[in-house]
Amino acid sequence: MIQQNTRILIVEDEPKVASFLKRGLEENDYSCEIAFDGLMGRKMFDTGGYDLIILDINLPYKNGIELCKEIRHNNQKIPVVMLTALGTTEDKLLGFDSGADDYLLKPFEFRELLARIRSLLKRISIAETGENIITFLDLEVNLNTYEVKRGGEKIVLTQKEFALLVFLLRNKGRALSRNEIAENVWGINFDTGTNIIDVYVNFLRKKIDKCYPKKLIHTQTGIGYILKEEKE
Ligand code: CA
What we know:
The protein is α/β, with parallel strands linked by helices. About 40% of the residues lie in helices and about 20% in strands. The longest helix is centred in the middle third of the chain and has 20 residues, at about 110-130.
Protein backbone atom coordinates (compact mmCIF):
# COMPACT_ATOMS: atom_id res chain seq x y z
CA MET A 1 0.00 0.00 0.00
CA ILE A 2 1.33 3.42 -0.94
CA GLN A 3 -0.51 5.16 1.91
CA GLN A 4 1.27 3.41 4.71
CA ASN A 5 4.40 5.51 4.51
CA THR A 6 2.79 8.57 3.05
CA ARG A 7 3.30 11.66 5.20
CA ILE A 8 1.05 14.66 4.77
CA LEU A 9 1.71 18.13 6.14
CA ILE A 10 -1.44 20.10 6.91
CA VAL A 11 -0.92 23.86 7.14
CA GLU A 12 -4.16 25.24 8.57
CA ASP A 13 -4.79 27.79 11.31
CA GLU A 14 -8.36 26.79 12.17
CA PRO A 15 -7.95 24.07 14.81
CA LYS A 16 -11.30 22.46 14.01
CA VAL A 17 -10.57 22.14 10.31
CA ALA A 18 -7.01 20.96 10.99
CA SER A 19 -8.05 18.21 13.38
CA PHE A 20 -10.94 17.15 11.13
CA LEU A 21 -8.46 16.74 8.28
CA LYS A 22 -5.91 14.93 10.41
CA ARG A 23 -8.47 12.50 11.78
CA GLY A 24 -9.96 11.76 8.37
CA LEU A 25 -6.61 11.22 6.71
CA GLU A 26 -5.32 9.04 9.51
CA GLU A 27 -8.42 6.88 9.20
CA ASN A 28 -7.27 6.36 5.63
CA ASP A 29 -3.78 5.32 6.73
CA TYR A 30 -1.97 8.52 5.94
CA SER A 31 0.30 9.91 8.59
CA CYS A 32 -0.29 13.62 9.25
CA GLU A 33 1.26 16.55 11.01
CA ILE A 34 -0.23 19.99 11.50
CA ALA A 35 1.35 23.43 11.25
CA PHE A 36 -0.94 26.17 12.58
CA ASP A 37 0.66 29.10 10.75
CA GLY A 38 2.75 29.82 7.66
CA LEU A 39 6.09 30.13 9.43
CA MET A 40 5.61 26.88 11.27
CA GLY A 41 4.57 25.32 7.95
CA ARG A 42 7.83 26.48 6.39
CA LYS A 43 9.90 25.12 9.27
CA MET A 44 8.20 21.75 9.13
CA PHE A 45 8.52 21.57 5.33
CA ASP A 46 12.25 22.26 5.73
CA THR A 47 12.66 19.24 7.97
CA GLY A 48 11.70 17.23 4.88
CA GLY A 49 10.13 13.86 4.42
CA TYR A 50 6.61 14.92 3.43
CA ASP A 51 4.90 13.43 0.40
CA LEU A 52 2.09 15.96 0.04
CA ILE A 53 1.07 19.30 1.51
CA ILE A 54 -2.42 20.58 2.24
CA LEU A 55 -2.22 24.34 2.41
CA ASP A 56 -4.70 26.96 3.58
CA ILE A 57 -4.31 30.42 2.01
CA ASN A 58 -5.24 32.80 4.83
CA LEU A 59 -2.65 31.97 7.45
CA PRO A 60 -0.93 33.99 10.18
CA TYR A 61 2.67 35.20 9.65
CA LYS A 62 3.00 33.87 6.11
CA ASN A 63 0.10 33.27 3.75
CA GLY A 64 -0.38 30.11 1.71
CA ILE A 65 0.46 31.72 -1.63
CA GLU A 66 3.80 32.93 -0.32
CA LEU A 67 4.54 29.62 1.36
CA CYS A 68 3.62 27.70 -1.79
CA LYS A 69 6.08 29.76 -3.84
CA GLU A 70 8.82 29.06 -1.31
CA ILE A 71 8.01 25.36 -1.35
CA ARG A 72 8.19 25.32 -5.15
CA HIS A 73 11.49 27.12 -5.05
CA ASN A 74 12.87 24.21 -3.03
CA ASN A 75 10.89 21.31 -4.38
CA GLN A 76 9.27 21.10 -7.80
CA LYS A 77 7.67 17.73 -7.26
CA ILE A 78 5.82 17.64 -3.95
CA PRO A 79 2.06 17.88 -4.58
CA VAL A 80 0.38 20.88 -2.96
CA VAL A 81 -3.40 21.03 -2.49
CA MET A 82 -4.75 24.45 -1.59
CA LEU A 83 -7.78 24.63 0.64
CA THR A 84 -9.47 27.95 0.80
CA ALA A 85 -12.62 29.95 1.05
CA LEU A 86 -11.39 32.24 -1.75
CA GLY A 87 -13.08 31.03 -4.87
CA THR A 88 -13.01 33.44 -7.77
CA THR A 89 -11.23 32.45 -10.98
CA GLU A 90 -8.56 35.01 -10.11
CA ASP A 91 -7.97 33.41 -6.73
CA LYS A 92 -7.61 30.05 -8.42
CA LEU A 93 -5.17 31.43 -10.97
CA LEU A 94 -3.12 33.00 -8.19
CA GLY A 95 -3.07 29.68 -6.37
CA PHE A 96 -2.03 27.73 -9.44
CA ASP A 97 0.55 30.34 -10.38
CA SER A 98 2.17 30.02 -7.00
CA GLY A 99 2.65 26.35 -7.83
CA ALA A 100 -0.35 24.56 -6.31
CA ASP A 101 -1.39 21.34 -8.04
CA ASP A 102 -4.97 21.41 -6.94
CA TYR A 103 -7.42 23.81 -5.41
CA LEU A 104 -10.35 22.89 -3.21
CA LEU A 105 -12.97 25.31 -1.94
CA LYS A 106 -14.18 25.36 1.65
CA PRO A 107 -16.54 23.90 2.62
CA PHE A 108 -15.54 20.71 0.84
CA GLU A 109 -16.48 17.09 1.09
CA PHE A 110 -13.79 15.00 2.69
CA ARG A 111 -14.10 12.19 0.16
CA GLU A 112 -13.46 14.67 -2.61
CA LEU A 113 -10.25 15.80 -0.93
CA LEU A 114 -9.27 12.17 -0.50
CA ALA A 115 -9.86 11.45 -4.19
CA ARG A 116 -7.72 14.43 -5.19
CA ILE A 117 -4.92 13.38 -2.85
CA ARG A 118 -4.93 9.85 -4.23
CA SER A 119 -4.84 11.08 -7.79
CA LEU A 120 -1.94 13.46 -7.08
CA LEU A 121 0.08 10.78 -5.33
CA LYS A 122 -0.61 8.35 -8.18
CA ARG A 123 0.51 10.91 -10.73
CA ILE A 124 3.78 11.35 -8.87
CA SER A 125 4.49 7.63 -8.74
CA ILE A 126 3.71 7.27 -12.47
CA ALA A 127 6.06 10.15 -13.22
CA GLU A 128 8.79 8.56 -11.15
CA THR A 129 8.56 5.02 -12.45
CA GLY A 130 7.29 5.49 -15.99
CA GLU A 131 9.08 6.81 -19.05
CA ASN A 132 11.16 9.79 -18.14
CA ILE A 133 11.42 11.78 -21.30
CA ILE A 134 8.70 12.59 -23.80
CA THR A 135 9.78 14.00 -27.13
CA PHE A 136 7.81 15.39 -30.03
CA LEU A 137 9.66 16.83 -33.04
CA ASP A 138 12.22 19.21 -31.49
CA LEU A 139 10.38 19.40 -28.14
CA GLU A 140 11.76 17.46 -25.20
CA VAL A 141 10.11 17.10 -21.79
CA ASN A 142 11.80 15.40 -18.87
CA LEU A 143 9.24 14.12 -16.36
CA ASN A 144 11.79 13.60 -13.62
CA THR A 145 13.65 16.89 -13.71
CA TYR A 146 10.74 18.98 -15.15
CA GLU A 147 13.17 20.26 -17.76
CA VAL A 148 11.64 21.37 -21.04
CA LYS A 149 13.63 22.07 -24.18
CA ARG A 150 12.75 23.08 -27.69
CA GLY A 151 15.43 22.85 -30.35
CA GLY A 152 17.88 22.26 -27.51
CA GLU A 153 16.95 25.54 -25.79
CA LYS A 154 15.76 25.41 -22.23
CA ILE A 155 12.23 26.69 -21.53
CA VAL A 156 11.06 27.47 -18.00
CA LEU A 157 7.42 26.55 -17.31
CA THR A 158 5.28 26.93 -14.22
CA GLN A 159 3.88 23.83 -12.59
CA LYS A 160 0.51 24.08 -14.35
CA GLU A 161 1.98 24.96 -17.73
CA PHE A 162 4.13 21.87 -17.40
CA ALA A 163 1.18 19.65 -16.50
CA LEU A 164 -0.82 21.07 -19.41
CA LEU A 165 2.02 20.45 -21.84
CA VAL A 166 2.46 16.87 -20.64
CA PHE A 167 -1.26 16.21 -21.05
CA LEU A 168 -1.24 17.64 -24.60
CA LEU A 169 1.85 15.59 -25.44
CA ARG A 170 0.40 12.36 -24.12
CA ASN A 171 -2.63 12.96 -26.32
CA LYS A 172 -0.80 14.30 -29.36
CA GLY A 173 -2.82 14.27 -32.56
CA ARG A 174 -6.10 14.17 -30.65
CA ALA A 175 -8.39 17.20 -30.22
CA LEU A 176 -9.05 17.79 -26.53
CA SER A 177 -12.06 19.63 -25.19
CA ARG A 178 -11.65 22.30 -22.51
CA ASN A 179 -13.55 20.07 -20.10
CA GLU A 180 -11.24 17.15 -20.72
CA ILE A 181 -8.22 19.39 -20.16
CA ALA A 182 -9.72 20.88 -16.97
CA GLU A 183 -10.48 17.45 -15.54
CA ASN A 184 -7.11 15.96 -16.31
CA VAL A 185 -4.78 18.87 -15.67
CA TRP A 186 -6.59 20.64 -12.85
CA GLY A 187 -8.60 17.71 -11.57
CA ILE A 188 -11.60 20.00 -11.49
CA ASN A 189 -14.59 20.92 -13.53
CA PHE A 190 -14.37 24.66 -13.75
CA ASP A 191 -17.58 26.60 -13.75
CA THR A 192 -18.75 27.07 -17.29
CA GLY A 193 -17.85 30.48 -18.58
CA THR A 194 -14.38 30.57 -17.08
CA ASN A 195 -11.54 31.03 -19.53
CA ILE A 196 -8.81 29.55 -17.37
CA ILE A 197 -7.93 26.88 -19.96
CA ASP A 198 -7.56 29.46 -22.72
CA VAL A 199 -5.47 31.65 -20.44
CA TYR A 200 -3.08 28.79 -19.70
CA VAL A 201 -2.90 27.59 -23.30
CA ASN A 202 -1.88 31.13 -24.22
CA PHE A 203 0.81 31.18 -21.50
CA LEU A 204 2.12 27.92 -22.87
CA ARG A 205 2.02 29.04 -26.51
CA LYS A 206 4.08 32.10 -25.66
CA LYS A 207 6.81 29.90 -24.28
CA ILE A 208 6.62 26.83 -26.51
CA ASP A 209 5.52 28.18 -29.90
CA LYS A 210 5.89 31.93 -30.20
CA CYS A 211 9.58 32.07 -31.09
CA TYR A 212 9.55 29.00 -33.31
CA PRO A 213 8.40 28.82 -36.93
CA LYS A 214 6.62 25.48 -36.50
CA LYS A 215 3.67 25.76 -34.12
CA LEU A 216 2.76 22.71 -32.05
CA ILE A 217 -0.38 23.81 -30.19
CA HIS A 218 -3.40 24.46 -32.39
CA THR A 219 -6.94 25.62 -31.76
CA GLN A 220 -9.55 23.10 -32.86
CA THR A 221 -12.63 25.18 -33.60
CA GLY A 222 -15.69 24.03 -31.71
CA ILE A 223 -13.71 21.55 -29.60
CA GLY A 224 -10.66 22.91 -27.86
CA TYR A 225 -6.98 22.32 -28.49
CA ILE A 226 -4.70 19.84 -30.21
CA LEU A 227 -0.97 19.29 -30.20
CA LYS A 228 0.21 18.17 -33.61
CA GLU A 229 2.72 18.75 -36.34
CA GLU A 230 1.82 21.69 -38.53
CA LYS A 231 1.43 20.69 -42.15
CA GLU A 232 3.52 22.73 -44.58
CA1 CA B 1 -7.17 30.19 7.52
